[in-house]
Amino acid sequence: MFKAELLERAARARSSACTGDGDGARNLASCPSLVLNADYTPLSYYPLSLWPWQTAIKAIFLDRVVVIETYDREVHSPSLDMKIPSVIALKQYVRPSEFPAFTRFNLFLRDRFSCQYCGDPHHLTFDHVVPRRVGGRTTWENIATACAPCNMKKGGRTPRQAGMHLYAQPIRPTHWQLQQHGKLFPPNYLHETWRDWLYWDIELEA
Ligand SMILES: [Zn+2]
Question: Among 37, 70, 95, where does a domain finish?
């Protein structure tokens, strides 16, 4: 993702969400807080770890998070005025499990939401690489993301029998690998105060 595009996105986000003007209640509802782990990296990139601002404020009072950045908007109650947090960090580090759960979402994320036979990102399904009828199991190592046409074409055959090639042999990914893949999917909404925390380690273009 190019920096210019990020900046443009941020500018769009600035004008569309959590600003002081327009429909107050609706804008307030769209002021999520980006949640960082205690090491100041996002808890999750994709889906991006976001909490509603109410949850964030509750966590502040429970002394579970520190506020890193705020929106310009304030919330008022009889006892306090407070700027809405836009970035918060957990005080206690949450250690991610080394191996993520075997879910549809994580499987697609491992395969970067693209067919492992042709690269198409549309009409994604799951393919048993070794077909079930010959004993292929439903495991990380035997399921690949495939578009519907490729899945249909392959039918109940192995890739070799079908003359089809996998981009990569399916593996059980680590949490770190999925996080890396998650970085490839920037959120639609990107507040300016989130940028430093999401993309500080992105490689700069020469
Ligand atoms: Zn395909």
Answer: 95
